[in-house]
Amino acid sequence: MLDDLTTAASSPTPWPAAYPQGYAVVDVETTGLARDDRIISAAVYRLDARGEVEDHWYTVVNPERDPGPVWIHGLTSDVLEGAPLFQDVAAEFATRLEGRVLVAHNAVFDWQMIAREYARARSEAPVKQRLCTIALSKELRLPLPNHKLESLAAHFGVVQRRAHHALDDARVLAEAFRPSLRAAAAGGVRLPLHECLPLTEWTDRPRTGQQAGPGGHRPAGWRPSRKRPACPYPNPGRYEPGERLKQGMRVAFSGDTSVERDLLEDRATEAGLHVAGSLSRLTSLLVTNDPDSGTSKVVKARQYGTPVVDEAAFGQLLGDVEPAPED
Question: What is the pTM of this model?
Answer without folding.
Answer: 0.82
